[in-house]
Amino acid sequence: MNLPDIRGVRALHERYAPTPEALDLVLTHCEIVARIAVSLAERAGLEVDAELVEVGALLHDIGVYRVGDGHYIRHGVLGHGILRAEGLPESLCRFASCHTGVGLTRRDVTEQGLPIPVADYLAESAEERLVMYADKFHSKSSPPRFLDGAAYAARVARFGADKVAAFRSLAAEFGEPDLGGLVAEYGHGFEEGAVLLR
Ligand SMILES: [Fe+2]
């Protein structure tokens, strides 16, 4: 598969970022997600395409640059469109459209009235699921922060018990990342939840 290398990834971010601040926020987040995903894969001894995991994670939020004043939920489909327009393979474009929450179903789109085409946006391959999962442990909030599984579970609970269950099953499959080193290195805050909701 023809994937961009690290330099190509950076060039893509620089091409689409509207400001240096946006570039720093999104690229840093993508790097953190890539590091979490790769380390989870190594620790669990997963048989995944490590290069696809890394490049997919590094580009999964490229659509954030295009959201502007629009709905943030659109960043996934916008990112998919950017990567496709760049001639990148569908298997890479999918990391952009299929990483939101713990997977958006067609039913989620209609029931929540989301401003994206009605379709399923579900991580399918192990690589896609791993990146979607790793993304849940760092937030581009202002200021950016890390969060543990319990904190994410509490956050996603408002979207329904099925979403908590989906997150728990990802946690059982991939394990909880050890974020201590990244928290120290990046100096972002760390939000710890009380208990992984059932
Ligand atoms: Fe993300």
Automatic annotation (TrEMBL):
InterPro entries: HD/PDEase_dom, HD_domain, HDIG_dom. Residues 22-149 form the HD/PDEase domain. SUPFAM superfamilies: HD-domain/PDEase-like (SSF109604). SMART domains: HDc (SM00471). This is HD domain-containing protein. It comes from Kitasatospora terrestris.
